TrEMBL record, chain B:
Residues 44-198 form the Thioredoxin domain. Keywords: Cytochrome c-type biogenesis, Disulfide bond, Redox-active center. Pfam families: AhpC-TSA. PROSITE patterns: THIOREDOXIN_1, THIOREDOXIN_2. This is Redoxin domain-containing protein. It is found in: Cell envelope. The keyword Disulfide bond applies.
TrEMBL record, chain C:
Residues 172-182 have a biased composition (Pro residues). Keywords: Cell membrane, Cytochrome c-type biogenesis, Heme, Iron, Membrane, Metal-binding, Signal-anchor, Transmembrane, Transmembrane helix. HAMAP family: CcmE (MF_01959). It is a single-pass type II membrane protein. It is found in: Cell membrane; Membrane. Belongs to the CcmE/CycJ family. NCBIfam families: PRK13254.1-1, PRK13254.1-5. The lineage of its organism: Bacteria, Pseudomonadati, Pseudomonadota, Alphaproteobacteria, Acetobacterales. This is Cytochrome c-type biogenesis protein CcmE. InterPro entries: CcmE, CcmE-like_sf, NA-bd_OB-fold. The gene is ccmE. Residues 144-182 are annotated as: Disordered. Pfam families: CcmE (PF03100).
Length: 674, 200, 182
């Protein structure tokens, strides 16, 4: 049995991957050929091809996982990242912690999105609002072409099923830092977000090809934008939480190229999310929306791959390989550049909208939101690409870090928050200031009433101002809900009678506000570094932290040193608040050490302790004394950052739940788009 | 002319993308040729005389490696820096053995007289000797650089790496090529052989 | 009239859009330029710092090797650890003051990057980065060392401090010794 698995798994997986590539190519070519005529059996092939491609890739994964669990070190990927004594969960999760495995994950997720699109009930007599079958075939074909390119890349330059000869007796093991549950879930989440934007991209290309970017098109596209956006939001949130709780540097966002690579598509994706709404409701901005859909996917691609080519100097970059980089760049040029070229040729011919923007209308607020988000994106992009381009053009070495991004992004975020609050209260088309003000009055009053407390509570005026604007966003979203509830006819004022999209939008906006409040709170975090022997007390904002003991013991494949901390209210005699045990783990095999931070999450603050190192000192009597270097933090509102991210994603998820009511017919042409 | 303006505006994104793409191509190109590297490995010793380095012992029964060996060398030397704990070096074994075999028994005229020497970087003698056995004792001279001191002098930035040294009586050996990567057939044919053919 | 009305409304709307775009774009360009001129952190080697001292308010990244025997650690009155050490690029050395925990892999004879300000006498660091692991070396240090023709030791444990002292001496034939550090 084991013998069979050893022989079969790598080759079976390899074959499945090659098969999937061929299927993806067929999925890309055949339906497109079929669509040239009105009724061709080829068109109907898109769906079964997408499903079988997905099955083939899932089979490849099964093979890879079986080989990894069975310690098949004849696979180069497994020999380089795994070891016999590695916990089994990380034998699986470790597979996507490297270039080859993560690429396989990427194509598999794309095929899963395709399968989702294929399985979704299409338009029929019973479901006239469903996705038109011809449009679905075209989308699947375009996604098949994208998938085929990347599977070819996977097979030729980054094959996870490559063999190694001679077979090593044991693997090289995995970076202990990567042995963390958060990191095991992070790539799949983040990637499903990245890859998810392939579907709106396919919608955009389809619209450019047949020249129909109308309201109905936007309505079909919107759920896909929202789901990709929600997953990307969750992925970024989890990544940031991982930085905070695992890396033990006390920060949550480092403006590293890899982080920026996720933030950039998130920003354009958020802009897309809002502009697609304008297309659907007002039949405006569709050219812009097309461009955003293309740009978001292109940025997602660059985010996943360009970082890995070694151009951007990131801590997270995998080993660089220019050959791979050129292939990636070729694919990027093909998909990103090709679609932008298509855009340049076809977009000017798209019909011009007849309606206009009046300054006081929801569409104008959404447009402003788009302008601000895209400016933010341009700024982050500039900061990320500045160092490599400076080195290329002028040979100068420099680094762009947190100061640059703080100085540029905060001033752009503040007006964005201000607009966010107003936008929910604005109706479509047009309104007058005297009608708008009463709707905004409660939120304005709440915000104004908190001016003094904010400036008193938050450490800097900038943090206080940002916090006030966050409060403005939250209160505007909630007040709007209440006002709309009161606007319902008497007798049916129940929460569930409000449209779900309203709930979803309010929830997402509240999430943004909560995250911003968390960021402002973190600006006032207190930190102390102490070198302490057991029995030492330290005071931090009115609490007493005592190092009670230092202990050591053995773990499965590491050794642990723990520091036991007792935290009391007020002073050394106050009531005990909690105990924290930060630890250091030493992995003798890799000669590495990892920090394990101890965090107590409380509603209004995090207590955070990291053990830096333990020193041994000998006194003149020859007795050893141990002292620990500890970093103690009090991080106000820290957990709100991630809570807000989850709330945002929940808002997206809420929007996706099937609605009981029939969608209203869209404005303008009601013809079905092919 | 509203139509042209629309066309111009629509072409802007592709122009921007083309600019970025060009930049990236230049960077990748530079990466490939070592002119652009965010984690640059520089090879300052190329063209320089062999550096002074402490005399290195070898495994029992093999010749060690000293600075003096480079003063008395008469044929070009390919010095391979390796370690048994490095996976790329394990991958390198087949080519090294094959090269050693072809050097020992020159079949064609084109096989330039070349000596294959080894520098073993920070390794246990026992595991180094296992590696050598697997490779079929390819090196005519072998230095065990257990504290990494000689590698520092040579400017080694990682394993595997390789140097091509030409005899030069004036300075006692001159480094003509420093490869930062494993030896493969392709690297050997494109980087090493041209130097050998250019030599008088 | 009825035909031209939507057009004028469109024109008026377009005016607002273009205005908003220009404002945003202008603001962003201003912010970026301002941030680039004031917050870009340049990398400097000790000899560059001494030759062209930066203004005391400017944050720079100082990179080089920690001179062997130069590290003095202490503890401030509030238990915060303090450290003082010299950083050299083989040609000149700058004394760095740092309050905080030195990174785990901080060692004498090892490459470091210190982020901070130079006041004409000494360098006050707000952050000290040592190499992360066996294979990591700050790129700037590698560049600077290679420019001055020194070894790039980003791999494996560092040579011990005495060896590094001998490496910092410009002429390799000068006998190494404990006093050889600049």
């Amino acid at each position: 049995m084991t013998m069979l698995a050893t022989i079969f798994c790598p080759e079976g997986g390899h074959f499945a991957l090659a098969l999937a590539c061929a299927l993806a190519l067929m999925q890309g070519v055949l339906p497109l050929a079929g669509l040239r005529r009105t009724d061709s059996p080829l068109t109907a092939l898109a769906r079964p091809l997408a499903l079988s491609q997905c099955l083939a890739l899932l089979f490849a994964w099964t093979c890879l996982v079986t080989a990894s669990l069975g310690n098949d070190f004849s696979l180069k990927l497994i020999a380089e990242t795994s070891a016999i004594n590695k916990p089994w969960a990380y034998k699986i999760a470790g597979l996507w912690g490297n270039h080859e495995g993560s690429l396989l994950l990427w194509v598999t997720l794309l095929s899963l999105w395709c399968a989702g699109l294929a399985l979704l009930p299409g338009q029929s007599a019973a479901r006239p609002e469903g996705l038109p079958l011809r449009l679905r075939a075209r989308l699947l074909a375009l996604l098949g072409l994208v998938g085929a390119g990347f599977q070819l890349f996977c097979l030729t330059t980054s094959n996870p099923f490559l063999r190694l000869w001679p077979v090593p007796a044991d693997g090289m093991g995995m970076n202990p830092l990567l042995q963390d549950p958060g990191l095991a879930v992070h790539p799949p989440l983040l990637y499903s977000g990245y890859v998810g934007f392939a579907v709106p991209f396919a919608f955009a290309i389809s619209a450019l090809l047949d020249g129909r970017a109308n309201a109905l098109w936007a309505r079909h596209m919107r759920p896909w934008v929202i789901s990709a956006w929600a997953l990307l939001t969750l992925g970024i949130t989890l990544g940031s939480w991982w930085s905070y709780s695992v890396l033990g540097w006390g920060g949550y966002w480092f403006w590293d190229p890899v982080e920026n690579a996720a933030l950039i598509p998130w920003l354009t994706g958020t802009a897309l999310l809002h502009s697609v709404l304008v297309v659907e409701k007002r039949n405006l901005l569709h050219v812009w929306c097309l461009l955003l859909a293309i740009a978001t996917f292109a940025f997602s691609l660059s985010g996943t791959f360009l970082v890995r080519s070694g151009i951007l100097n990131s801590v997270h970059a995998f080993a660089n390989d220019p050959a791979r980089g050129l292939f990636i760049l070729g694919l990027l040029g093909l998909y990103g550049g090709g679609s932008l070229l298509l855009f340049a040729i076809r977009a000017p011919a798209l019909p011009t909208p007849q309606a206009g923007f009046s300054p006081l209308s929801r569409e104008s607020a959404l447009l402003l939101n788009n302008i601000l988000l895209c400016t933010l994106c341009a700024v982050v992009l500039t900061g990320t690409l500045y160092p490599p381009f400076m080195q290329l053009l002028f040979g100068r070495t420099l680094s762009v870090g947190k100061p640059f991004f703080d100085a540029t992004t905060i001033p752009l975020t503040l007006p964005l928050l201000a607009v966010m609050g107003v936008s929910m209260a604005l109706p479509w088309r047009q309104t007058r200031a005297d009608r708008l003000l009463p709707r905004l009055a409660p939120a304005l009053l709440i915000t104004a009433g908190n001016i003094l407390p904010a400036f008193w509570l938050f450490p800097t005026p900038l943090a206080a101002l940002s916090a006030l604007l966050a409060l403005w966003v939250i209160s505007a979203a909630l007040c709007d809900l209440i006002l709309r509830l009161r606007g319902l006819p008497e007798g049916s004022r129940q929460l569930h009678r409000l449209p779900r999209s309203l709930w979803a939008a309010s929830l997402a906006h509240v999430g943004v506000g909560v995250t911003i409040l968390g960021l402002c709170g973190m600006a006032g975090s207190q930190e102390r570094l102490i070198e302490a022997r057991p029995g030492t007390h330290a005071t931090l904002t009115g609490r007493d932290w005592e190092l009670t003991a230092l202990t050591a013991h053995h773990g499965p494949n590491y050794e642990v040193v723990e520091a036991h901390l007792t935290i009391r209210h007020h002073d050394a005699h106050g009531p005990v608040l909690t105990e924290l045990t930060p630890e250091i783990r030493l992995f003798p095999r890799q000669g590495q050490r990892t920090l394990h931070v101890a965090i107590l999450h409380r509603p209004l603050e995090d207590l955070y302790a990291a053990l830096g190192s333990v020193k041994e000192e000998r006194d003149p009597q020859g007795q050893s004394h141990y002292s620990a270097i500890l970093r103690l933090h009090e991080n106000p509102l820290a957990s709100w950052i991630w809570l807000g991210g989850i709330v945002m994603a929940l808002g997206g998820g809420l929007h996706l739940l099937p609605s009981r009511r029939r969608p209203k017919p869209v404005e303008g042409e009601l013809r079905s788009c092919r | 002319m509203p139509l042209t303006r629309r066309h111009l505006l629509a072409a802007l994104p592709s122009l921007g993308a083309a600019g970025l793409g060009l930049g990236f191509i230049r960077m990748l190109h530079g990466l490939d040729r070592g002119q652009f590297d965010p984690r640059a490995i520089n090879t300052p010793l190329t063209g320089q005389p062999v550096p002074e380095f402490p005399a290195l012992s070898s495994l029992p029964g093999q010749a060690g490696l000293t600075r003096e060996d480079f003063r008395t060398m008469t044929q070009p030397v390919l010095l391979s820096v390796w370690a048994s704990w490095c996976l790329p070096c394990v991958e390198e074994i087949p080519f090294i053995s094959q090269l050693a075999a072809s050097l020992a028994a020159p079949r064609k005229k084109r096989d330039a007289p070349l000596a294959l020497w080894g520098l073993c970087y920070k390794d246990q003698p026992a595991s180094a000797s296992r590696w050598l056995e697997r490779a079929g004792q390819p090196f005519t001279r072998l230095g065990l650089d257990q504290d990494g001191q000689a590698a520092i002098e040579w400017g080694v930035t990682g394993v595997p790496e390789a140097f091509l040294i030409m005899p030069d009586p004036q300075v006692g050996g001159r480094i003509v090529w420093h490869g930062t990567g494993g030896l493969t057939e392709a690297v050997y044919q494109t980087r090493v052989v041209p130097h050998l053919e250019a030599a008088p | 009239m009825s035909a031209s009305f939507p057009l004028t409304r469109r024109k008026a709307g377009r005016f607002w859009i273009i205005l908003a775009c220009l404002l945003c774009l202008g603001g962003a360009v201003g912010l970026v330029l301002n941030a680039l001129s004031s917050t870009i952190v340049f990398f400097m080697a000790p000899s560059q710092v001494l030759a062209h001292p930066p203004t005391p308010t400017r944050t720079i990244r100082l990179g080089g090797m920690v001179v062997a025997g130069s590290l003095h650690t202490g503890r401030a009155s509030d238990d915060t650890p303090e450290a003082r050490f010299d950083v050299t690029d083989g040609q000149a050395a700058v004394t760095v003051q740092y309050r905080g925990i030195l990174p785990d892999l901080f060692r004498e004879g090892q490459s470091v990057v210190a982020l901070g300000r130079y006041d004409g006498h000494g360098f006050t660091a707000s952050e000290v980065l040592a190499k992360h692991d066996e294979t990591y070396m700050p790129k700037e240090v590698a560049d600077a060392l290679q420019k001055s023709g020194r070894w790039d030791p980003r791999f494996g444990p560092p040579p011990n401090a005495a060896d590094w002292n001998s490496m910092t001496v410009p002429h390799p034939d000068t006998p190494p010794g404990p006093g050889a550090a600049p």
